[in-house]
Amino acid sequence: MTFWTYRRRDNLVGYLFVAPALLGSLAFVLIPLGMVGWYSLNEWNVLGGTFEFIGGENYKQLLADEKLRDSLVATAWFAAGLVVLNLSLALLLAVLLNQKLRGTTLFRTLFFSPVLVSLVAWTLVWQLMLQPEGSVNGLLGVFGVDGPNWLRGETTAMVAVIVVQVIKNVGLNMVLFLAALQGVPAPLYEAAKIDGAGAWRRFRSITIPLISPTILLTSIITIVGSLQVFAQIAVLTQGGPGTSTTVLIYYLYQQAFQFHHFGYGATISVLLFVIVAALTLLQWQMRRKWVLHES
Amino acid sequence: MTKLSRLTALIVAALLALTACSGSSAQSGPKSLRMTVWTANEAHLKLLNEIAAEYKASHPDVTEIKFDTIPADGYTTTLTTQIAGGNAPDLAWILEESAPDFVSSGALAPIKAKVEKADELVPSATKLWEKDGELYAYPFSTSPFGLFVNTDLVRELPKTWEQAVAASAGKNLVLPDFKYQNWAVLSAIWRGWGANAWSEDGRTCGFSSQEMKDAMTFVHKAIFTDKAIPGPGTTVDFFAGNAAMAISQISRAGALKDAKFGWTLLPLPQGPKGDYAVIGQAGVGVLKRSKNADAAADFLGFFTNAANSAKLAQFFPPVRQSLLNADTLAKSNPLLKPEQLQSVVIDGISKGVTKPSHQGQEELNQTIRAALDPLWQPDANIGQVLDGVCEKIKPLLERQ
């Protein structure tokens, strides 16, 4: 019997086909991931060129770090604000733009276009608009409202960062919702109408259940995305005022790249990884409860 | 050979090539040097490249000297990331605030032996870059803070801070680099009150001192009551003619070459404690980890010798006693008058103190920035905010 049976040949060909993708994810995802875990067990002084194994010291520091607690609170506020605002606005826009009215294509394009704009350019323009004498306050002034110094107040800075991010990305979720809405069979609505169901009842009992897989998908994408928001914070507030907008990933950046605590920075990124994984898992579990068509 | 085995061979070859790429080879024979700088100014780079070309002509073993521009915003972060990634430059321009970190960490190679006439360097300028009598970077650019005045907007030139603020009320007194973030720039003001961010040995916080409280009360009043310093989030450009005065380093004078308004440069106004000067600094050091550290140190010696320092003086104020006279400086600084060069540059460099710097500076920077944020509100409790700063940075100061 020869070594190269048909089965073995077939397997080899299969492995060779996946090899390029596998090597890519090995080199750029799995190995770096493992290295972050390794760095988190070490004290790495970049300037001095020392790299010393310290076991769980960084994790002990993590538990005692008060700034980290502030940062987690800021992250939670940011994520909650972003997800609620983004999903409800996206759904509202999708429902409105799903009507058969004139000009919907124009509005769809309009709401989607920020998604395509370069993130930093988008944020820089908003930074100008949010200045005390900027156009946002100018607009508020038209209605007789004396706008705040948005980026200098703790609450207003957080609101500003969330809104800037929501307007940037709401178009993406809107398009996903639109596609889902158009997949809802029209006869269901007709039948409900005949049964005397009003618009709200139809929305609640037909639309929501039928688009629930999309709601799950968008909420996972949005929550994970909200934990990875960096450029907006770096440009708009640098984590301030105080530490009010120092979200976890910005704190990670400060520790690793600004304060040169690469080991501790790696430890924070392990924490971030765990949080993202846990949230995703939780949502995935919850889908059985409220997503239709899932067995 | 079957098709399959040919494919296998190809993949193995590709893998080998990949692993070969990651290996590094030690430099021998022709050397190429890389120096990170923050400037992207064409005139600056032209001069740097001219000096490098001259050096290469007499040192055939050095085939390339490359000046690698890293934007000033985030300069140190980028530099340390390069070092962390195993891509350290041979020479690096180092900003004064990171000096203690670089000098104390052992990242830099000693260079005193390579510096021409090291004994003529002004002591106030080399202080930051020395450890145990050895010099770890050459104080390449030493730029005193001065008061730029737009003489179209201000008739009577101020001598004291009170006068400066009064004259610029409603007309803007700007600190271009402050942006309510880089608090260290404020040392150009608070030194006039005798205040300091921390004690000489770096262990005791100075923010809660009475001098600091008085100085910050003055700054706060200048922002919110006198409306002289533009408030948080407002940007006003002195160099475009939109402000009465600016507190900035004299190396900024170049930006006024084509100014459409009348201007002059004065020493920093007097505070309650009289005359004083504050300097900003940058040094050039050799990374110990560089494969060509010797060649790099040798080039640094040439780059900063008396003849080249004189050439560089038109952009980067020199620290050599022999060059620090109005005549020499006037040749390379046509925009400034001899008395300005004397009072701001020469006096400033010899008696000035550098901006606050400390080991772990970046963490201190961010902590102080965050703790000072509540101060930039019209109704701030100044004493309480400053005491809060000390509370926050105490553990950091004690950690060294």
Automatic annotation (TrEMBL), chain A:
Where found, per UniProt? Answer: Cell membrane
Q: Which segments cross the bilayer?
A: 12-39, 76-97, 109-129, 157-181, 210-231, 262-282
Q: InterPro entries, per this entry?
A: ABC_transporter_permease, MetI-like, MetI-like_sf
Q: Name one Pfam family in it.
A: BPD_transp_1
Q: Which family does it belong to?
A: Belongs to the binding-protein-dependent transport system permease family.
Q: Which GO terms describe its cellular component?
A: plasma membrane
The ABC transmembrane type-1 domain, residue ranges: 72-283
Q: What Gene3D superfamilies has UniProt attached to this entry?
A: MetI-like
Query: So which domain of life are we looking at?
Result: Bacteria
Keywords, sorted A to Z: Cell membrane, Membrane, Sugar transport, Transmembrane, Transmembrane helix, Transport
Report the protein name in the record: Multiple sugar transport system permease protein
- Give the main localization category: membrane
The UniProt entry, under PANTHER family, shows:
ABC TRANSPORTER PERMEASE PROTEIN (PTHR30193), DIACETYLCHITOBIOSE UPTAKE SYSTEM PERMEASE PROTEIN NGCF (PTHR30193:SF41)
How the protein sits in the membrane?
Answer: Multi-pass membrane protein
Gene Ontology BP annotations: transmembrane transport
UniProtKB/TrEMBL annotation, chain B:
Keyword field = Signal, Sugar transport, Transport
Give a yes or no for keyword Transmembrane in this entry. Answer: no
Q: Where are the transmembrane segments?
A: none
Enumerate the InterPro entries for this protein.
Answer: SBP
GO molecular function, a single term: maltose binding
* GO cellular component term, pick one: ATP-binding cassette (ABC) transporter complex, substrate-binding subunit-containing
Q: Where is the signal peptide?
A: 1-26
Superkingdom of origin: Bacteria
- Gene3D superfamilies given in the database record: Periplasmic binding protein-like II (3.40.190.10)
Which biological process terms from the Gene Ontology are attached to this UniProt entry? maltodextrin transmembrane transport; maltose transport
* Family in the record: Belongs to the bacterial solute-binding protein 1 family.
| Designated name of the protein | Multiple sugar transport system substrate-binding protein
Upper lineage is:
Bacteria, Bacillati, Actinomycetota, Actinomycetes, Pseudonocardiales
